[in-house]
Amino acid sequence: MIGAGVMPDVQLAQRAGLQLGERGGVRCSAGLETSAAGVFAAGDICEYESIVHGGAVRIEHWDVAFNHGKTAALNMLGRDVAHGEVPYFYSVFADWGELEYVGPAYAWSEEIVRGSLADGEFTNWYLQDGVVKAALTFGRSQDLDPARALIVAGEVLDDAQRGALADVDADLEALSARLS
Ligand SMILES: Cc1cc2nc3c(=O)[nH]c(=O)nc-3n(C[C@H](O)[C@H](O)[C@H](O)COP(=O)(O)OP(=O)(O)OC[C@H]3O[C@@H](n4cnc5c(N)ncnc54)[C@H](O)[C@@H]3O)c2cc1C
Fold this sequence. Notes:
Blueprint: H1 11-15, E1 26-28, E2 46-50, E3 55-57, H2 62-76, E4 88-93, E5 97-102, E6 110-116, E7 121-128, E8 131-138, H3 144-153, H4 159-166, H5 172-179
Parallel strand pairs: 1-2
Antiparallel strand pairs: 2-3, 4-5, 5-8, 6-7, 7-8
Helix pairs in contact: 3-5
The structure holds flavin-adenine dinucleotide.
């Protein structure tokens, strides 16, 4: 398997005088507006100030591009909303199944595994200083909503709560609801 990187083509935006960001995209506000008032960006090219991550992000996921379009459209209509979706992607891995991810974690200090690869079902949690930053799952889609809620909550998990992340019988919906 080969993972090949890509770079967004920002030449047109550059020639139009739009401000670019440090991650190679077109610099946008939390509401996806570029440096030119009334001009919005969406998808791979959009480097926006994320209220979820507390800084600028540029994400190359199909679902992100789809949801950017909705936020940009609302703001074109004058709604003044920040893009608050937790980035998500899925990818089909040959005959093995579907891999899904919410995040992203740019850095993490701890990984916690729920389930096992041998069983064909697992979620790998990525935490930075006790805070859930991302989750990658294979066969455990039910962990994604709690993961989104935990990422948005940004709370430091104690030992028992981190233990629940590893326990396939623990109620993650209840845990994430308590912390949200
Ligand atoms: C090999 C590969 C595998 C991927 N796998 C996954 C995956 O498994 N899961 C996932 O979530 N995401 C995946 N992605 C990422 C996903 O495809 C992108 O995040 C998504 O397509 C971005 O949508 P977009 O609209 O921003 O850009 P695009 O889909 O690239 O659309 C941009 C369009 O603008 C057109 N365009 C560019 N410049 C001009 C111009 N000057 N005038 C007019 N038209 C122009 C282009 O031709 C293109 O049609 C993958 C990407 C690649 C390359």
